[in-house]
Write a structure and sequence with these properties.
By secondary structure, the protein is of the alpha/beta class. It is built from nine helices and seven strands. It binds NADP nicotinamide-adenine-dinucleotide phosphate (NAP).
């Protein structure tokens, strides 16, 4: 896909991978970027910083809590009434650390509503509209290598990301004859606020993992994936994970889960 003069929408753009994607998009030719998240101050600051560096780019920000169905409907209406979207990025997501039975029910529901319900709802609304547009467009879902295999003490998060991986393959096939291409960006650990949120939402405090990629390098992988029309985009740190997932029998994850849960409960 040619990214020159494209119009983007990025959810979860106030931090981490979403903010890095916004920068990468304008650096690679985006003409208009719509930033969506809950923290208006962060979005305003990012929009200002981008526009200072790229005065020719239009940056719009929308404060929206994507847990709310009505908010999602209104946001999509507002976005498409303002013009076309060439790259729609469903990036907003969260995790929570701990054994499933110990997680607060509110965290369980929040994660499923954001990582699964909001992603499916926004994908449906966006694809219906993008299909009507004459030019090529892309739906970029942000998944995770956690979607390839169970992750003990982060099992629900892994299951929500497995949903993203699976939906990508189905949509990519179903939409292959249309102007909409579908991608899934599946990073391994990335240096963002993700773990802080996962610790705050869960019952287990996890230290930062020793090896993590920068959000910028993940965003640049996404740009390459879009340009070269790669359906499953794995940034370099994620490369071993598809093989690991393929080689490891499911029972190994169940045994690992038993051990991890025993340690986590202590
Ligand atoms: N970091 C990692 O190690 C890693 C690895 C693989 C995949 N991922 C995936 O990458 C994506 C981005 O994560 P990140 O690492 O960049 O995490 P992050 O730094 O915590 O960013 C999450 C973004 O989602 C937004 N968000 C959260 N809840 C929202 C809501 N209810 N409504 C609207 N926006 C909401 C946050 O903005 P507000 O708080 O302002 O709303 C923030 O902009 C997620 O889907 C995550 O699962 C992350």
């Amino acid at each position: 896909m040619n990214l020159q003069d494209t119009h983007w929408l990025i959810t979860g753009a106030s931090a981490g991978i979403g903010a890095a994607l916004a920068w990468a998009a304008v650096e690679h030719g985006a003409k208009r970027v719509v930033l969506v998240a809950r923290r208006a101050d962060k979005l305003r600051q990012l929009a200002q910083n981008i526009q200072e560096k790229f005065p020719g780019v239009e940056v719009i920000w929308i404060e929206a809590d994507l847990l709310e169905e009505m908010t999602r409907n209104n946001m999509v209406e507002q976005v498409f009434s303002g013009g076309r979207i060439d790259v729609w990025v469903n990036n907003a997501g969260m995790g929570s650390n701990g054994c499933f039975d110990q997680l607060p029910t509110s965290s369980v529901l929040k994660m499923v509503r954001l990582n699964v319900e909001a992603l499916a709802h926004l994908s449906s609304l966006a694809v219906q509209r993008m299909k009507q547009q004459p030019q090529r467009s892309a739906l970029l879902q942000v998944g995770s290598v956690a979607g390839l295999m169970p992750v003990p003490t982060m099992g629900l998060y892994a299951a929500t990301k497995a949903f993203v991986t699976s939906l990508t393959d189905s949509l990519s096939g179903e939409l292959s004859g249309t102007s909409v291409q579908v991608h899934c960006l599946s990073p391994a650990p990335v240096k963002t606020e993700f773990l802080d949120v996962a610790n705050a939402e869960g019952v287990l405090v996890r230290q930062q993992v020793p090896i993590a990629q920068s959000a910028r390098s993940v965003a640049l992988s996404a740009i390459r994936g879009l340009k070269w029309n790669i359906t499953h985009i794995y940034p370099w740190l994620a490369w071993p994970f598809p093989l690991l997932a393929w080689l490891t029998p499911r029972w190994v994850w169940r045994v690992t889960g038993k051990v991890a849960a025993r340690i986590a409960r202590q």
